[in-house]
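Why do we care about 3D structure at all? Because function follows from shape, and shape follows, mostly, from sequence. That is the central idea of this module. The next example makes it concrete: a single protein chain, its amino acid sequence, and then its structure expressed as tokens.
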Amino acid sequence: MNQQTLILDLDDTLIHCNKYFVESRNRFANVMKKWFKLVSKQEILDKQSEIDIKGVEKNGLHSSLYTQSLVATYRYFCLRFGRKLKGSEINQIEKIGQSVFQRKVKPFPYMYEILDTLQADGHQLLLFTGGDEANQRRKITQLRLTDYFEDRIFIFEHKNTDALQQILNNINTDKKCTWMIGNSLKTDIKPALELGINAIHIPAEIEWSYNIVDIEIEPSGTYAQLKSLVHLPEFIREQAYNTAINRGRSSVKEILTVYLNKEVKA
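And the structure:
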């Protein structure tokens, strides 16, 4: 089988992530509703999302920014309604935010079996994840993902095209055989297409609005969407087979061209 280089995203591609934030945000909004009865829960969630995304776009994906966005939302509504800030309430909010990064994470169904299959098929596996080193390493260590990715783990607080380019600069790979696989159109798919490598979008069941962007780039390689991670090994096998066939045809064509040129000269 023709070896492929597979660059996999972590959060909401291999493991559950956004659902923990959804649970936390709902807890936060429910607490806020008790303090600000005139504000709807949706308005609270919208304001928190607005503050959160602005912070991420400016400062990256450090885990501390999420908790800061909850506190900033609380401060916003306190100022708006003339409510006095209370240290006890801020502490309560901070605990809600920090709880996301203290819980045990869970892999997607069959994650280990899928990685085992990809590894057994001889593909080179890389992990490209966004966040701060401490939090992402916590999850990687807990799930023993170094068994599959070894030293090919790349963590960036700013997960974008520049970050992906740094990875490509560090590995010896053919773009035609290189794939970015993830749930985020913004941080996985768009950078891959901009850099001319193949991309596989696996949409998350619950998606963070930050990850949703329009893709208006003409792919120079293969751009596919799979319904589930479980379909990945078979899809890659098909693509590897097609690549091998095409290369074989090219080699035959080159040999014939050289032969015919010699015949003409003779």
